[in-house]
Prior knowledge:
alpha/beta
Amino acid sequence: MNLxxxxxxxxxxxxxxxxxxxxxxxxxxxxxxxxxxxxxxxxVAIADINVKRAExxxxxxxxPKNQIAPDIATAMRDRSTAIIANADELFDVDIDIxxxxxxxxxxGVKHALRAIDTKKHIIMVTVEADALxxxxxxxxxxxxxxxxxxxxxxxxxxxxxxxxxxxxxxFDVVCAGKGAKFLEHYHEMxxxxxxxxxxxxxxxxxxxxxxxxMHTSFRxxxxxxxxxxxxxxxxxxxxxxxxxxxxxxxxxEIATICRPxxxxxxxxxxxxxxxxxxxxxxxxxxxxxxxxxxxVVVKATNDYVSGCFNExxxxxxxxxxxxxxxxxxxxxxxxxxxxxxxxxxxxxxTGAPIGFFGDVVATAKKDLKAGEFLDxxxxxxxxxxxxxxxxxxxxxxxxxxxxxxxxxxxxVPKGGIVGWDDVIMDDSLAQALELRRExxxxxxxxxxxx
Length: 450
């Protein structure tokens, strides 16, 4: 509760937290919009291969021109901020923490390893990299004495905060999850028809400001699966091997829906993750839906607690045994500094993998033929399905993060999971593959904590 005081102390002592930001997309820009209003923070540089995009981010947030430095050396000396094209420069200077926000899982793994090797804390905004190899990265970071953390403001870290609240309060976590709009045909969505499934104006979709691949991933189930894999690995929760259900419901129904199937819910077992749809199966919006929010479902530890669930307006399930805590919004990059401050000032992650419990595997959107090239998240060929890590490793499933620009050696039917044996891997992925193998090896060591 005293992070702001600790930051203010650093400001007064002339020792601000030195931040290196990689990626000038939406998340990075949102953080820049806040950074100049936070004591004890110095954004030393923002790195983006598209320098003009980074310059545009500074313009968007009204960054003072006299605080933009020509290079990192000047930025370090004058407490200004440099714009650089090569992120490698960040690892050669004395900064405290790296924010990885490129959105590219292969690049994200590379940057995390460089941060760990140079003893810098790492905030992994690129949750795709965390789902691919986060357990191995977290273990390496711990061995190096640095913090590897989820990014506060994104839903996984906020869910982890609710999980921590539940367990610290003495509850067992039955389910952790979030809301999202989902209809059954979304798994077949591709960049050609993506805008038919969003509510944007034609003027905006024709403007070129929106990335059709990214927005396909947001709706076809991939992004939700990746975020829930991060939560599963951070909280020790085990997903169903049949994937997320995206069951429609409102905030009052969370505890009724996200409880085990044997008592009327949708979960295969207690101690899992789920996503609720904000629309009914016919596409009509549900009032008071969970669209932007996150939640945790807990179970009463005894009859007295069950009585409490029913005496207060907490919307327990019909049995009175299950109840939910819900947060309605996430502020994305505007909240990021919670993770930065906790990592540097307290040495604490706002969520990090404790093992390998959940995985996101490449699943065919259509009948795929040998010789075709997979085009990864948000493309035409595959979507990412959440399964347990144990199931993924046992069946040799290919993680969706590695299904980019790789050639199929075998046919895969629509709805089938692509396996390692079905593809010809690119030698350029050697580093990511090494970390992935380290992650898969953790399945045998992982003990369920939920």
